[in-house]
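worker-3 :: picked NAD(+) diphosphatase
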Amino acid sequence: MPNPLGFVGAWLDRADQLRTDPQAFAAACVDPRARCLALDGVDFVPGDGGGLRWEPLDPADDRALMLLGRDDRGIPYFVREAPRGARIDARSRTVMRLLPLLSPQDLALYGGARSLVDWHARHGFCAVCGSPTGIFRAGWGRRCGGCGAEHFPRVDPVVIMLAEHDGRVLVGRQRQFPPGMFSALAGFVEPGESLEEAVARELFEEAGIRVSDVTYVASQPWPFPSSLMVGCRAVATDPALTLDETEIEAAMWVDRAEVRAALGGDMEAPFMVPPPLAIARYLLEDWAGWMP
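worker-3 :: C-alpha cells ->
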C-alpha cells in the first residue's frame, strides 16, 4: 500500500556497509553507472519529466560526494555537499511550490538528501573545540581535525497532535499561516522528556488544556531542515482554552462534519486544512475517517 505521508518511502537501499568500508565507497565513487542528484543549494532541480534530475558524476567537481544508497541493480546514487558560500534557505518557498511535481518515492529521497546537505552546511566546525571538521563515513558523519570528535547528522523530534474532547478536535493557527488555515498543534521534544510528556506539555503551554490517554498515530520526516514529526492524539479533560498568543494566534474546537467539509474544500467550512504533504492533514483525515 502506498504511504499517504509525504517524504516517506525512499526507493534506495541505504547501503550502510559502504559507509563503513572506505575501499568499497571509493569504488562506488568511480562506478561509471553512478548518478548524482542535481541541487541548487538544497532545492532540487526539476528533471525533464518533472521529477528529480540525476546526472553522471563530474570528475571536475571537487565537492565531497555523499552516498544516498544503491538501487536494486547496485547502481550508487550520490549527492554533493553544497558549494562553499551557497545560500541555504531551510524554508524555500520556491521548492515548496515544486514538491507536488515529485513522485512519493522521489519526494522521500529528496527529503533525506536535502536534510543531509543542509546539516553539513551548518556543521563545518567542531562543537567541542571549534576546529574545522571534515566529511567521513560516506557523507554520514564529520570528524574534527583538532580533537578527533565525531559528529553525525541529527534529527529533531517534534510532536504534532490533535486533542479531542466530546467529539471535537482542537486546531490552531500561527500568524505566518495562510489566511484561514488551521492545523494541529506541535512542538519540539525537550531533553529528558518522553513523547507523551511532550504532547501534554505543548498542549498545556500553547492552549492551556490538560490531556490524558496520549496515543501514537504516525510519523513523518520533515526536511525543513531536519525534523521527525511524531503524530499523536490525546484526550482533553476540559475544553476551556487559554492561548499563548506568542505561539498561537487563534484556536478552536471543530467536529467531524466541519473537518470533513474543510478536507473536501467546502467554501463554507470554518477553516482551511494544511496541504496534502503535511502530517497535520493526515491526522485530520485519519480522525475524521476521510478518504481523499
